[in-house]
Structure formats: C-alpha cells, structure tokens
Write a structure and sequence with these properties.
The chain is α+β, with helices and mostly antiparallel strands and 360 residues long. It has three domains: 108 residues, Beta-Lactamase (2-Layer Sandwich); 72 residues, Helix Hairpins (Orthogonal Bundle), CATH 1.10.287; 158 residues, 2-Layer Sandwich (Heat Shock Protein 90), CATH 3.30.565. It is 42% helix and 27% strand. The strands form three sheets. The protein has a five-stranded antiparallel sheet with strand order 2-1-5-4-3. The protein has a five-stranded mixed sheet with strand order 7-9-10-12-11. A two-stranded antiparallel ribbon has the order 6-8. Helix 5 runs antiparallel to helix 6, helix 7 runs parallel beside helix 8 and helix 8 packs antiparallel against helix 9. The longest helix is centred in the middle third of the chain and has 48 residues. It is elongated, with a radius of gyration of 27 Å.
Amino acid sequence: MPQDSVHKRLLDHLKTGVVLLDNRLRLLYLNTAAESLLGVSDRKANQLFIGDVIFKAEEDISDMQTALAKNVSFTKRRAELKVSHNKIIFVDYTIDPFEENGETQALLELNSAAHSHRINREESLHSAHITTRELVRGLAHEIKNPLGGIRGAAQLLAQENKDVELTDYTNVIIEEADRLHNLVDRLVGSRKPLDLKDTNIHEVLDRVRSLVEVEVSGYGINLQCDYDPSIPPVHADSEQLIQAMFNIVRNAMQSLNSPDVNHQLGKIMLRTRVLRNVTIGTNFHRLAASIEVIDNGPGIPENMIDTIFYPMISGRPDGTGLGLPITHGIINQHKGMIECASKVEETIFTVVLPILESKN
C-alpha cells in the first residue's frame, strides 16, 4: 500500500481504478476510483481475496492467476463483473505483475466501459453543439437582417394605410417577424457570461416549482420533492440554472399531457442527492450535486434518445426542439453534465453539478 500521502493523493485523483494485489490475489490497496467501481472501501477490502469482491468471476480470476504465474501482462476488454449489491459493471482491465522486495505483486487497472462511452458521447455532443452553434449564428445574421427590413416596411405601410382590414394584415406581418426574431435569438442562446455565486439548488428548484405549479393545476399532475438537505451550495448562475431546470420540468409536464399516457395521475419528482467521487467529462470531483427530474409519462422513443439534446429535435408536433439543447448548453457552461434514461412510465433526467471543495 502506498505510504507517501502525496502518492496516495495522486492515485486518488486518477479516473482509472488502481488495485494492488499480492501473489495470491489478495487486495493490498484500492484507490478512490477502484473503491467506487467495486463498491468497497480500501479499509474493508484489505487482505480480502479478489473473489470476495468480484463474484462468479472464475474465468477472470483464472486469467489473473495465469498472468501472475507466467509473470506476463494480461488485458481483457469489456469484462462483465458482478460486484457488491449485485451490481454489474463493464470494465476494460489489465493485470500487470512485478517484483517488489523479492515478492511478486500485481497492479490491476480498471477502466469503466460505461464511463468511456459517456465521455465519448459528451465529447461528440459538445463538438456537434459547437458546430451547430456557429452555423446557427451565421444563419441568424442572414435571417435577422431581412426580418428587420420586413418589419420596418410593415410599420411604414401601417402608418400610411388608413384601411382597418389592411392594418390587421400589417400587424400580422409585424407580430410574425417579432416571433421569428425571438426564435432566432433562442436558437443562438445567451452570450452573457455567467454570474457565478454560491447557490442553494433547493432555492432554484423551489422557484421552478412555483413557475410550474400554475401550469400543472387542473391537469391531474402531482409535483413532488425529495431533497437532500446536506447538499452544500454549488457555484452557479441561479437565473440560468432556473431556466435549465424549468425547461426539463416543463418538458416532463408536457409529456404527461400526451395522449399516449395510460394512467390517471401524472407525477413529477424533483430529487436531489450528494454524489461522491464523480467524474464529469474528464474532471474528477470528490463531491457533486445530483438533481433528478422523474416523470411517469410515456417515455422518449428509443430512436430519439440519443438526439434529444440536438437543436430542432422534438417529439411533439408543436415543439421547437430548443428547450433541451438550451439546457444542455447551460449545464455545460457550469462544468456539469446532463443525462437521460427513459422507458415507458419512467423518464429520468439527471443533472450533475460539481461542488467546489472548501479551501479552509
């Protein structure tokens, strides 16, 4: 087990799970990422046989024993391992034997396949958003210029024209030009820098509740909360965060008004929890705040689940497909992440925001 506290801190900041094993595959040390993956602490795992931590893994254990006996490195991709609480994890692992003070030991490296997939998806989505944003900003400039001309011409016509019926037509032109102008502004998104302050996420969610409760009244939708009061403040722009969470909750509310709902009572749950040892993108955080918005609506179609954060993608005929992309952009600006899991009668949007460690 590493004795130097600096070395231990370095290992604990790795996203790769690191396990030190003796020549009989007993655990000598786990870093923080390995603890999180295997669901066991370094203290409790000390001197345990690896078969007491990963279960029903006779083939994997045999491969590790062979690697130790032959003193060769062995790698397995996409291994399916059963760990504590009957949790199944998918990892790429490498076992690498070495000599230490005349004894054979081994370093076991564990890389979460799910985490790698999530990073790749986030990077792909972020790259696509940058490309889309630049394209939209270019189009916005080309659209807003003629829109201004159309609106100005309609105003001049309205001033010159005394016919009431024709004035109604010019008013329609002005209103529709304004609507398109606002739509383009929403597509481009805000360029104002974030006003980051210590923010209580429950105050943000309570504000969202007050905005939504007026809309859900009379629709048979029950809005519930399950808050973790121990969550410290997050460094955030409260107004932007309210907008992001409102978009998600309103999306849930609209899904519950869908004709595909096959139950009488719609439910929207706002749930918060503290997460420990979380990796967001490529950054490791000891603490993070999780905000879940859960509804019992019809679910998101499987063919749309991977594209819902792209602009102009909507499952509703009257939807603009802007709410979730705007939300993704806001959460991304906060160095957080947003994920969605959906099936019939359970859609969960999860927002994870880093909690800055106190410097005191």
